[in-house]
Amino acid sequence: MVEFTPLSGAVGGFVIGLAAVLFMAVNGRVAGISGILAGVLTPVRGDWAWRAAFMAGLFAAPLAFWLATSEKPQVVFDHPLWLVALGGVLVGFGARLGGGCTSGHGVCGMARLSRRSIAATATFMATAMISVFVLHHLAGF
To answer: Which of 31, 32, 51, 106 is the most buried (most CB within 10 A)?
Structure first.
């Protein structure tokens, strides 16, 4: 079981929110990971470099943490790796189907009071709750 750490969660949430606001203020764009990744995989001329830099930053952050603290970030899977991978594929499919991802809708869209993002966030949160209930209480994972 993963330890509940509200302080680090609150700090992480604040940093994500601050980064999303700064990204919007500086670039005029929403920090939606699925859209940014899609732009890296299907590049548009003059639009690829900032997207690649953003994605590289997602990998550089844990490395910077490791170098700064000498503490290797731990990745713990409470479920079989195949189930985690399947969940990732389904989230990716849902992100493309819904025209955005949890970060784009949940962090950026909700902050802008976008009706579409509020509906999308309510949908994926309800789906997540149902999935956790089914996996933990009915399927035995």
So the answer is: 32
Average pLDDT, the chain: 86
Angle between helices 33-41 and 48-69 (to 10 degrees): 120
Say whether pLDDT at 36 is over 80: yes
Every domain of the chain and the residues it spans: 6-138
114 φ, ψ (degrees, to nearest 5) = -70, 125
Mean local confidence (pLDDT), 20-31:
89
Q: Left if phi > 0, otherwise alpha if psi is -120 to 50, otherwise beta: which for 43?
A: beta
Q: What is the pTM of this model?
A: 0.72
Give the pLDDT score at 53.
Answer: 93
| Cα distance between residue 123 and residue 133, in whole Å | 16
Whether 62 contacts 73, CB under 8 Å: yes
Sequence-distant (6+) residues with CB within 8 A of 40 are: 48, 51, 52, 55
